[in-house]
Amino acid sequence: MNKLTPEEERVILHKGTEAPFRNEYDHLFADGTFICRRCNAPLFSAETKFDSGCGWPSFDANYPDAVKRLPDPDGMRTEIECANCGGHLGHVFIGERFTKNNTRHCVNSVSIRFIPKGQDIPATIHPDK
Predict the structure, then answer these.
(1) Whole-structure pTM over 0.70, yes or no?
(2) Which EC class does it fall in (predicted)?
């Protein structure tokens, strides 16, 4: 696994949330891939990113089998994790009608890293290795 800063650990390992509207990727709209900061697994194509106005990066689709959905302990939301390493990404919301997919993956910037198109994506680190 990649070494994490204390803030990344707070969010990714302990299911925290970063402050809205002041994070790295909320306003980034460039061609590329968003990967898990902990294990490098590809999670979202930049083509699926949209401005939801919520203060965190929003995506209306993930790569197949890249994200796991779990009931949040509060019983109100659905948590999303990296399917490879179990790192906390944020939450998913269905039915808001922001996009044709009717889905908003609301993701903490500290949980992901952006790899611009044309740049090599680092190899995925598997937890059991």
Answers:
(1) yes
(2) oxidoreductase
